[in-house]
Amino acid sequence: MKVRLTLSKYVEVTNGIIGCFNQLVRCDNATWSMAEDDAFQIIIELFNAGTDTTATALMWSVLFLVNRPDIQAKLREELMRVNRCSMPV
Question: CA nearest 11: which of 45, 50, 39, 48?
């Protein structure tokens, strides 16, 4: 199942986070709250952190595969077997 986030979904998530945060603040009798821009920035940073981590892991994987043709071959065989694909991988 693919989840496609649109701008309205980002706004919905952001508003949910702000609402939850503000409820916690009220429970603690705090005198401050979170602005929508701050919550949106936090969400973007979390998304970017996950993307950067994945990209780095893939980059290192490719680097190691370049240096190990035997493992490349095993990986290719497994991809072909699992995907039952006749196209080159």
Answer: 39
